[in-house]
Structure formats: C-alpha cells, structure tokens
Design brief:
The protein contains eight helices and no strands. By secondary structure, the chain is mainly alpha-helical. The protein has one domain. Bound molecules: fe (ii) ion (2 copies).
Length: about 210
C-alpha cells in the first residue's frame, strides 16, 4: 500500500507536503506516547534521548512539509494532513493491542514493544520514501533520521530480549496487528489522495483547496 501511495503522490509537491505532515504527526504521537506512558522517576538519559529524537524527527518532517507547501501546512489540523485521524489511530491501535496482552499494566514493556514495532515500520517506509524525496532535495534529512531509528530499534530489541522470555511469541502476534493497522492508515491515505486528485482535473488546484 505504501507503494501505491507513493505512486499517487507522484511529483506533486503539495500532496507530498500533506503526506510528510502526516508522517510528522506519527513522530509527534510517538514522542507524546512515551512521555504519557512513563513515570518521571523511571525516565533515564536513554529515554530522554529517545523522546528528544522523536520530537526532532517530527520537526524535521514538519519543516519539509512547510517547504513543500510554501509555509501553508503550519499545523496538525485535519485539513493540513492526509488521513489525520487514522494516523493517530495507528499509534493507538498498536499501543492498546500490546497493553491487552499483559494481565497487569506493564508500561515499560509496553513502551518497548510499541517502539520496536513502529521502528520496524519506519525502517521499511523511510528508506523507500527517502529515495522519492531525493528528487525534491530532501533525502539527506531522512538519512539522519534513519540512523537514529536504527538505534532506537536495537535499544528496544535488546531490552525486550532481556525483559520478556515470551518475546518471540508476542512479537509474532503484535507484528500482525501493527501490519493491519498500518495498512488501514495507508489505505485511508490512498483514498484521500484519490479524492484530492479527482476533485479537480488539476492536481495542484485540488491540493491547494485542501490546504
Ligand atoms: Fe522517529
Ligand atoms: Fe524512533
């Protein structure tokens, strides 16, 4: 589905701007989730780095979205996003499905699993999309993010292996939920893109109206 979205985005800067703003929301939602889920007393330097890097990613993507839209995509309002509700739902679905697995609340394990699944997804999406953004001159911004996402992935993988003897079984289950949730998000992105493209014969006009 991500390939279909990339195809629909084509070379339209305005549409890419909306899509990148939605990616920015995902990064922001990830950072927010960490802050809300962890007690302050358990937050160490590693977790602080993780939060600040996710916020940085949200900002990097937001800045690209602003450049792509000549400054118009200034907020996370629905009108400035593609499938905004579904972007938030994606993070919630992944997080809640993990919470349901444990009989008692396990905020630390929950955080680790949610992060791992989202990072695995990021490692599939960002390298692919980075190549697309090369044409617009933004590939290097994503490259820095990919390195940091790789670090988050190894950090969570290490802690999950140490902290949960049932990690393999659980990961199989969680990956299935995450995969379906991501497809749902991308399917809404594709639907919105198709509507925007069909609205007017000119793609730029259609997107300008959305903005
Ligand atoms: Fe990130
Ligand atoms: Fe990350």
């Amino acid at each position: 589905m991500i390939k279909k979205a990339i195809e629909l985005l084509g070379k339209n800067k305005n549409l890419h701007g909306l899509f990148i703003n939605s990616l920015s929301v995902l990064e922001f939602a990830g950072a927010r989730k960490i802050i809300k889920s962890q007690k302050a007393e358990n937050i160490d330097s590693e977790v602080l780095s993780h939060i600040s890097e996710e916020i940085r990613h949200a900002r990097v993507l937001k800045n690209i979205a602003l450049k792509m839209s000549d400054g118009k995509l200034s907020s996370y309002k629905k009108i400035h996003l593609l499938a905004g509700d579904e972007a938030w739902n994606y993070i919630q679905t992944v997080d809640h499905s993990i919470a349901k697995e444990f009989e008692t609340s396990q905020p630390w394990l929950n955080y680790l699993y949610t992060t791992l699944l989202i990072e695995e997804r990021a490692m599939k999406v960002y390298p692919l999309y980075s190549e697309v953004l090369e044409e617009f001159g933004f590939a290097s911004s994503l490259k820095g993010m990919i390195i940091e996402e790789e670090n988050h992935l190894s950090f969570t993988r290490k802690h999950i292996l140490e902290g949960d003897p049932q990690s393999e079984r659980r990961l199989d289950k969680f990956r299935k939920v995450e995969g379906e949730a991501f497809e749902k998000f991308m399917s809404s992105v594709c639907t919105e893109l198709s509507i925007l493209k069909n609205k007017n014969s000119s793609q730029d006009d259609a997107c300008a109206q959305h903005i």
